[in-house]
Amino acid sequence: xxxxxxxxxxxxxxxxxxxxxxxxxxxxxxxxxxxxxxxxxxxxxxxxxxxxxxxxxxxxxxxxxxxxxxxxxxxxxxxxxxxxxxxxxxxxxxxxxxxxxxxxxxxxxxxxxxxxxxxxxxxxxxxxxxxxxxxxxxxxxxxxxxxxxxxxxxxxxxxxxxxxxxxxxxxxxxxxxxxxxxxxxxxxxxxxxxxxxxxxxxxxxxxxxxxxxxxxxxxxxxxxxxxxxxxxxxxxxxxxxxxxxxxxxxxxxxxxx
Length: 257
Hints:
Blueprint: H1 7-22, H2 30-34, H3 41-58, H4 61-77, H5 79-92, H6 97-110, H7 128-142, H8 147-154, H9 156-163, H10 172-180, H11 192-204, H12 213-219, H13 233-237, E1 245-247, E2 250-252
Antiparallel strand pairs: 1-2
Helix pairs in contact: 3-4, 4-5, 5-6, 5-11, 7-8, 7-11
């Protein structure tokens, strides 16, 4: 004998299934986190970009905090090479406008240090909003989201801005344009020199080899003077002890803990 299921139960079941399908499934990042090695600081930065991208899509505070931790570790491990880029990435995740401004100022100050990212040619400085827009477009591109980069390249002002960095990019703006036309959500297979070249552009947009009081004030839109404790920049990039290894869901100091 067939039993007829009430229509109300069927509708409720359908609604439940649709809601479950619409809920984002959080990826299991732990295997990749545990594979990180402080001898390869760029891997922390790149995974941080991926997780920050996922945090923006899922609006997950936990993922956002995890991305901050990864950027901070990358910046602390390789202060000269990734310190400025880490500060800039942290600014994009900052909880408030003033914290973001302080981190952008730290990024500008770090740009003057010698290192793989810090060695920058002289170029006119742009405003912090523009610098962050380019940084977000580049970061999205590196994690397989090309829409912001394509919009930037299609905008005449954006294109002229990037053309000033043509010799810094591997293959110039033409290379960037060609790569941006590839399908979205397909993470580009970039070499470390290519990633570093893009980071040079991001940091260079906050160019300040010798930051002045006026440039710091400009970064903060004339709000009360920013306090940048130069002797504690490490703590601004990563607050607390440097724990570079991930084991059993927590950060530890040594790989055997």
